[in-house]
């Protein structure tokens, strides 16, 4: 890594959100073939107030930046310093994101290979639990006379890189850095600038082919890394190869978290019917078994449209087709020695075929009571039982990510929509429509998240 033209970079800012906050200081350490060739730093007038807690952290006050140049004034010279260099930063997504946003405000294109020293440390020293800058300074004995100032922190990064090279060797450091900046193999017609715009936030992404036809919808908690993975070059999945061959355009939609991405993916796949999505496709109908042993009812195969999801206590299974439902029941009958007539799999009177081949205990031949048979049937169906809705009624699940906060409105396993403000609630569908994929998504997510999510009770 150190044999390249490098810039060790650190920024100080007014806050943590690149789209809203601004840069207050830039510090650079310039390195050529492993040797320090220059340092540069400047305060930046952010043209916005620096919050008091940021002043206390960095020591940079509003008075200090009042007469400093704006980013627009330093941008041409800064871009010349960075052009063609490998940027090295701690939590590089933060610094690189701010730089790109500032250049974007000036309609200046800027892109660079970037190496993150947090990721480098995790790769090189996997046995250590902490990789923040203070932890690395303590672990490697690095001092800093100007912590939380841009040039001081950039000097720390340069010193850490030299220590890692001396301890582990050039090859280990170069390999760890190369793993971060491996370039994807882009399909014809896709620009690196398009990929550069994709955020590292949760959401869904959409690939379009010829005539702007949707070919694939996916989701991720990190949109950028997931999209790049499709073009990694190894194409271990046949699906990725087909995507590379067909994709002409990429679009994406950010969400506040994982649940929003899961729900939006399911919705878009059913709406757009992309050719390469095999799961979550729209299904005209689905099936379940209804059975209440207390009322001595026969087991019935019913359409999903006939299920009242306010009470699923006697509903079993979610099946795409009648055939898959009946096959599942046949497998249960064989495993639990159930009667084919009593389960509705066979018509007629007298001993069923399974009893004749000694796979039914004989409720159809008077050798077993119906109560004992139904007790075994209850056990057989227990794994298919639909989970009861664990709330009193309609709820919202709130997800937040930085300045974005989404409220997903749910009612008895049905997804009504997502809003970001209270006045949007009236536009949601009033009538819940059950979807098996949404049920499975919500069941898994709510069970895994437990008390870690914010539930908002809602009327209606």
Shape: elongated
CATH H-level superfamily of the largest domain: Ribonuclease H-like superfamily/Ribonuclease H
Measured on Cα atoms, how large is the radius of gyration? 30 Å
Note the gap between the termini: 60 Å
Q: Main beta sheet: strand number and arrangement? A: 5 strands, mixed
Unreliable runs, pLDDT <50, ≥5 residues?
none
Residue-averaged pLDDT? 88
The CATH topology of the largest domain turns out to be Nucleotidyltransferase, domain 5
Instruction: Please give the share of residues in helix.
Output: 25-40%
What does this structure look like?
The chain is an alpha+beta fold and 460 residues long. It folds into 4 domains: 5-181, 2-Layer Sandwich (Nucleotidyltransferase, domain 5); 192-272, 3-Layer(aba) Sandwich (GIY-YIG endonuclease); 287-384, no CATH class; 395-457, no CATH class. 36% of the residues lie in helices and 20% in strands. The protein is built from 16 helices and 15 strands. It has helices at 52-58, 62-65, 71-82, 92-105, 117-124, 133-140, 150-168, 170-181, 192-197, 223-230, 238-246, 258-272, 322-336, 353-356, 370-381, 436-449; strands at 5-13, 23-32, 35-43, 86-89, 114-116, 203-208, 214-220, 249-254, 287-290, 300-303, 315-319, 395-401, 404-411, 414-419, 454-457. The strands form 4 sheets. It has a 5-stranded mixed sheet with strand order 3-2-1-4-5. A 4-stranded antiparallel sheet has the order 14-13-12-15, covered by helices on one side. A 3-stranded antiparallel sheet has the order 7-6-8. A hairpin with a 2-residue loop joins β12 and β13 (404-411). The longest helix is centred in the middle third of the chain and has 19 residues, at 150-168. The mean pLDDT is 88.
């Amino acid at each position: 890594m150190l044999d390249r033209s490098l810039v060790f970079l650190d920024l100080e800012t007014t806050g943590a959100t690149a789209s809203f906050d601004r840069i207050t200081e830039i510090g650079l350490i310039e390195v050529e073939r492993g040797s320090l060739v220059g340092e540069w730093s400047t305060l930046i007038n952010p043209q916005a107030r620096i919050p008091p807690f940021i002043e206390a952290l960095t020591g940079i006050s509003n008075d200090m930046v009042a007469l400093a140049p704006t980013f627009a004034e330093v941008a041409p010279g800064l871009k010349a310093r960075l052009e063609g260099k490998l940027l090295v930063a701690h939590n590089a997504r933060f610094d690189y994101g701010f730089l790109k946003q500032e250049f974007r405000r000036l309609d200046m294109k800027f892109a660079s290979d970037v190496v993150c020293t947090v990721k480098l440390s995790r790769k090189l020293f996997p046995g250590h639990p902490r990789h923040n800058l203070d932890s690395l300074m303590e672990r490697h004995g690095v001092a800093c006379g100007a912590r939380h100032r841009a040039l001081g922190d950039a000097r720390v990064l340069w010193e850490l890189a030299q220590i890692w090279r001396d301890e582990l060797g050039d090859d280990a450091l170069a390999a760890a850095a190369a793993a971060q900046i491996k370039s994807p193999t882009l399909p014809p017609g896709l620009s690196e600038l398009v990929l550069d715009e994709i955020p590292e936030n949760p959401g869904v992404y959409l690939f379009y082919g010829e005539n702007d036809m949707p070919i694939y919808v996916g989701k991720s908690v990190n949109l950028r890394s997931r999209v790049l993975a499709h073009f990694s070059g190894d194409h271990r999945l046949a699906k990725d190869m087909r995507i590379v061959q067909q994709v002409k355009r990429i679009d994406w939609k950010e969400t506040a978290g994982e649940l929003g991405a899961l729900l939006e993916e399911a919705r878009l796949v059913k709406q757009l019917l992309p050719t390469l999505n095999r799961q979550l496709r729209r299904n005209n109908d689905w099936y379940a078994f209804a059975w209440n042993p207390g009322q001595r009812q026969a087991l019935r195969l019913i359409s999903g449209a006939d299920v009242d999801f306010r009470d699923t206590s006697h509903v079993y299974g979610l099946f795409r087709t009648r055939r898959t439902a009946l096959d599942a029941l046949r497998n249960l009958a064989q495993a639990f020695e159930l009667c084919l007539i009593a389960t509705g799999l066979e018509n007629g009177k007298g001993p069923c075929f399974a009893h004749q081949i000694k796979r039914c205990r004989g409720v159809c031949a008077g050798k077993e009571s119906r109560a004992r048979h139904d007790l075994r049937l209850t056990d057989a169906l227990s794994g298919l039982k639909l989970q009861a809705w664990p709330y009193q009624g309609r709820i919202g699940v709130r997800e937040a990510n930085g300045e974005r906060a989404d409220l997903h409105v749910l009612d008895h396993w049905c997804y009504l929509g997502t809003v970001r403000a209270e006045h949007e609630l009236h536009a949601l569908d009033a009538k819940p429509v059950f979807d098996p994929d949404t049920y499975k998504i919500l069941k898994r997510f709510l069970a895994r998240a437990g008390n870690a999510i914010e539930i908002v009770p809602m009327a209606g």
